[in-house]
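Usage

Read records sequentially. Each one opens with the input sequence:
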Amino acid sequence: MGKQYNKVEKRRRRAAYLERLKTRAKEAAIKPKARRTKKSEAAAG
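and closes with the structure output:
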């Protein structure tokens, strides 16, 4: 059963890894926009 169980574990780890990547990508997409708006406001002010 060792190999089969390793496959299950591998799938779980990969799924968790992909979820972390998705959340990081979303955060990275949101944060630069917020920074840009603050810089543009400071430059305009």
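Summary fields computed downstream for this record:
- Residues 1-45 form one domain.
- The mean pLDDT is 81.
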